[in-house]
UniProtKB/TrEMBL annotation, chain A:
Keywords, sorted A to Z: Electron transport, Transport
Subunit structure: Heterodimer of an alpha and a beta subunit.
Family the UniProt entry places it in: Belongs to the ETF beta-subunit/FixA family.
GO molecular function, one term: electron transfer activity
Ranges of residues in domain Electron transfer flavoprotein alpha/beta-subunit N-terminal: 21-213
Taxonomic source organism: Shimazuella alba
SMART domains with a match to the protein in the record: ETF
GO cellular component: cytosol
Family matches, as InterPro entries: ETF_a/b_N, ETF_b, ETF_beta_N, Rossmann-like_a/b/a_fold
PANTHER family: ELECTRON TRANSFER FLAVOPROTEIN BETA-SUBUNIT, ELECTRON TRANSFER FLAVOPROTEIN SUBUNIT BETA
Protein name: Electron transfer flavoprotein subunit beta
UniProtKB/TrEMBL annotation, chain B:
Stretches assigned to the Acyl-CoA oxidase/dehydrogenase middle domain: 122-218
Keywords, in A-Z order: FAD, Flavoprotein, Oxidoreductase
UniProt keyword Transport, yes or no: no
Domain of life: Bacteria
Domain (Acyl-CoA dehydrogenase/oxidase C-terminal): residue spans on this chain: 230-378
Protein name: Acyl-CoA dehydrogenase
Entry annotated with the keyword GTP-binding: no
Residue ranges of domain Acyl-CoA dehydrogenase/oxidase N-terminal in the record: 6-118
UniProt lineage: Bacteria, Bacillati, Bacillota, Bacilli, Bacillales
Amino acid sequence: MNFLVCLKQTFDTEEKIVLKNGEISEEAVEFIINPYDEYAVEEAIRLKELHGGEITILTIGPDRAEQALRSALAMGADKAVLVETEDLEDELDEHSISQLLYAAIQEQEDNYDLILCGYMAVDDGSAQVGPRLAQYLQIPHVSTITKITIAGNEVSLEKDIEGDVEHIQTHLPLLVTTQQGLNDPRYPTIPGIMKAKRKPLTRFEIDDLSISEQSISAKTAQKEVFLPPQKQAGQILKGSIKEQVTSLVEKLHKDAKVI
Amino acid sequence: MNFELTKEQSMIQKLMREFSEEEVKPGADQRDQTGEFPHDIIRKMAKLSLMGLNFPESYGGGGADTISFAIAVEELSRVCASTGITYSAHISLGCAPIYLFGTEEQRKRYLIPLCTGDSLGAFGLTEPNAGSDAAGTQTTAVENEDNWSIQGSKCFITNASHAKFLSLTASTHSKTNNQRQITAFIVPTGIAGVSIQSNYNKLGLKSSNTTEIYLEQVKIPKDNVLGEIGNGFKQFLVTLDGGRIGIGAMAVGIAQGAYELALQYAKERVQFGKSISKLQVIQHKLADMAMEIELARTYVYKAAWLKDQDKKFTKEASICKLFASEVARRVCNQAIQIHGGWGYIHDYKVERYFRDAKLTEIGEGTSEIQRNIIAREIGC
Ligand SMILES: Cc1cc2nc3c(=O)[nH]c(=O)nc-3n(C[C@H](O)[C@H](O)[C@H](O)COP(=O)(O)OP(=O)(O)OC[C@H]3O[C@@H](n4cnc5c(N)ncnc54)[C@H](O)[C@@H]3O)c2cc1C
């Protein structure tokens, strides 16, 4: 069975966000595999252990994203593909990324039976890339899965729906996006880490893909980046209940402007 | 010159940071109080092939280098020094002599179960009357027709309760000139005449295993000699050189852990209407701590790097161990000071670091002995 995991390298969730000239500064920041994508890698490895096959990890990103690919290879994936976007001046949005993933998949000799993506990236949080990619590939997709069982061509899935579980039956080829609760990602072993360097990693520039600059140009534009307002100290209203209510309504209306 | 970790080293660092935070830290305070040995942690580490980290894959090891070993010991000790010393002693005192001096047969028989975690590694050098003067060993081994007979005792031996065998030193007599010499042996712990106790009431490192070993007419086969007959003294000097990198790394980890706690506390604690971290006195303490830790770590890496390059590293191993252990003592002392009264109380953790740190100035050669070694190495 051929597995493909689409993965993004993101900010370490422990990092503090610092803005510099209206952009999020990447200075001295630690990068990690997007946590939801880590579930996808782990699930692919578990499925490979059960059914055999090969796992390819694909990422679109800057040069440093190689580190995330090596980590996935250390966990047990077999090979990796990096589409480098370092030289690209234009902004990329979910549309561009899914187009690029699609184009990169077209370059591969393999046909993938199962494609796994994290359900969203913790940085942008759009949850769009997986479903968009499935659309381009013209294959079914199920989002936010918490369990997957494959028998032949048949796939049984469970997904979390607000505290309830939805059971879905579908078939390969398929794209799923992975949700917390699916598994507990393993630590890489030392032999895994030592072998990661020797596993194949292919690099593409955008020019290497059969795709026009136009078809990847962003459909959205980012207007402003700002931090949430600093939390102010709380206020305790004084006086009779009536006075307190009056003052509260006034504050909600005039200061907070919510009513 | 390049101060950057390799990709493998940084992946091992990331792994060890996560593993220590998630698996080692949660029970550390409790283990400090109960003295319970971290069996579960060792089992999990074995699954990741950490127990043979820097030994060849052909013996079940991980094929990593000494710098990676130092990183692993530092990260464990940053959250739990008892686990740190257990691991450091296993690798540098348990596995290393067998790898360095063992025959192919001995490596297969003994190094493989150590690397896979089936046995913990231990090394018996110190005796009640032979500590710093380890060559003064009073344990004796007499060669009989078809075996060796060992008689004596060892003290303060780390990990021996959980070891299926250990290497130890004993005095022997040269056949040619009847001179007293020292020879190392591999002794199974389950055979007649060997008894192991762990009854010490220690200052710190409470959940590490520290034992006394009694050897009463212990008979071991002739092929259990480790290395050359009469070469035991030279062999343990080489072993301790490597072990000192482990203790240096352990000291850096303890210091780092205590420093992080102190920094965080200083930012949170408010006195005289402002955070104590805004007081220059406290800032300077923290700056000194950060500086000393950086220097200690850099030197631990240098000693480890020299070892990985197969260069001589005796002096550097002593310097890194001596400096890092004294840094750990100073940093833990100041970490308590910054915490004020709470620093003296178990819940705030730094008192555990303070107690644990002290061992690093004693084990694998006291600070006085390290100064003797450095003095000798610089030609005094
Ligand atoms: C928790 C723990 C774990 C240990 N694990 C092991 C282990 O796994 N294997 C093992 O073999 N040993 C182990 N040891 C023993 C340790 O290595 C010794 O305690 C150490 O080497 C010091 O020996 P000693 O205790 O006999 O002190 P002594 O040698 O009696 O020293 C007493 C004091 O005299 C000083 N002194 C002695 N000689 C000189 C000198 N020539 N010049 C200047 N000063 C000197 C010392 O520095 C020290 O301050 C462990 C000890 C502890 C506490």
